[in-house]
Amino acid sequence: MAGEAHTSADYIRHHLQNLAFGQRPDGTWGLAHSPEEAQAMGFWSLHLDTLGVSIVLGVLFLYLFRKAAVNATAGVPGPWQNFVEWVVEFIDTSVRGSFSGGRNLLIAPLALTIFIWIFLLNLMDLVPIDWIPGLMSALGLPYFKLVPTTDPNATFGMSIAVFLLVLYYSFKIKGVGGFAAELALHPFGKWGMPANLFLELINLIAKPVSLALRLFGNLYAGEMIFILIALLFSAGIGWGVMAGFLQLGWAIFHILIITLQAFIFMTLTIVYLDMAHQEHH
Questions:
Q1: Nearest partner of 153 among 228, 66, 51, 75, judged by Cα
Q2: What is the pLDDT of residues 152-199, one digit of tens each?
Q3: Catalytic residues
Q4: Alpha carbons 183 and 134: distance in angstroms, whole number
Q5: Model-level pTM?
Q6: Is the C-alpha dihedral spanning 102, 103, 104, 109 positive or negative?
Q7: Using CA atoms, how far apart are residues 130 and 20, in angstroms rounded to an integer?
Q8: CB 150 within 8 A of CB 223
């Protein structure tokens, strides 16, 4: 890990590199030990750190919320049950306020899953920047990025899943003809069909792209700031003391960012699915 980073640029590159597994240029399969080797593996390489952390946090979320549901009591709730009930009520209020497309039992559980899972993924950005990469380096792993939402593969994966749901409900509610008519006839009517198709297709494709890039961009920028602050610790005692205050201040402010980005992703998902349920006549 840091032992391999001889300059500031090396340190930054090391912390921004995922643990990639794939086929090396020589035909063998294994972990990439340099950014160039990871790039040569191409599109089908796996980012094991992103997948591993995402799965672990997803299982943790399901376990903790299931535990609250199984142990729920009708009397005075315990602290964890009280927290879970507050979160569920908050999600229910958000869905009722943003989704008016009729009854769909998928929307609220989906919104809850998106909000909590993305919040937990973002929360990893508050773990000190060198702790986990240092531990993994001691175990022999060349790289390890702890924050899955700083990997565009993760954010695009989630946004594409939402996009597929939007397409599914658009076809289910409106039918193939209704959905095609919506793309071809709005907003300028039948005489503006080419322009309508162009604008509506751009609008449709922009939804998953904006969802993914907004989440990725905010978390990537936050991670970069933590890395730059960490570099100050090697510049002497004075800079190290200032870096400590900067790191604390940025971490406190970043709590707002990680929560807000999870909420925005959830809200836009609800809105997009609501739009998919609306029939235009």
A1: 51
A2: 999 999 999 999 999 999 999 888 888 888 888 777 777 778 888 888
A3: 210, 214, 218
A4: 51
A5: 0.91
A6: positive
A7: 19
A8: yes
